[in-house]
Amino acid sequence: MDKFPEFTLENQNGVTVSNEDLKGKTVIYFYPKDNTPGCTTQACDLRDNMDFLNDLGVTVYGVSGDSKKKHQNFIEKQGLNFDLLVDEDFKLAESLDVYRMKKVFGKESKGIVRTTFVVDENSNILKRYDNVKAKEHMDSLKEFLQEV
C-alpha cells in the first residue's frame, strides 16, 4: 500500500496541518484554483455532503496553490465547512505527481490536475482518484467510503 508523503501545510487561517492530524479516514483533494466553476462545484458537493462524511468519521482537506487570503475568500463566499491547505510552492502536489503539464482550453501549462486521495490515520493511501470529474466525483467517493 502506498504511503501519503510527509507534509506540513498551513490552512486558510495559518494553522499548521500535517500527517499527525490525519485521524480515521481523510479525504485530501487537490484542485486547480479557488472560485473557478469546476472547483466550486466540487467544493460545494463536499460541503453539501459533510453530514454524511462526518457520520463516517471522514475529515476533508482541499489543497491548491492559492494563498491563505484566497482560500479564506473562497470559504466565505461558498460557505465551505472544511479546511483548505496552501501549497503555494506545489511541493506536496509535485511529490504526488498531481502538478504537471496539462491542457486547458487548448493551451498547455503546468498546474494541478484534479486528484483525490482517501488516506487512513497511518498515512496509507486507501484510494486515489485521478483526473476527477467535479460533477460525478461525490457519488464514487460515497460508494467507496461506505465500503471501507
TrEMBL record:
This is thioredoxin-dependent peroxiredoxin. GO terms for cellular component: cytoplasm. NCBIfam families: PRK09437.1. It catalyses: a hydroperoxide + [thioredoxin]-dithiol = an alcohol + [thioredoxin]-disulfide + H2O. Gene3D superfamilies: Glutaredoxin. It comes from Salinicoccus sediminis. Residues 1-148 form the Thioredoxin domain. Belongs to the peroxiredoxin family. BCP/PrxQ subfamily. GO terms for biological process: cell redox homeostasis; cellular response to oxidative stress.
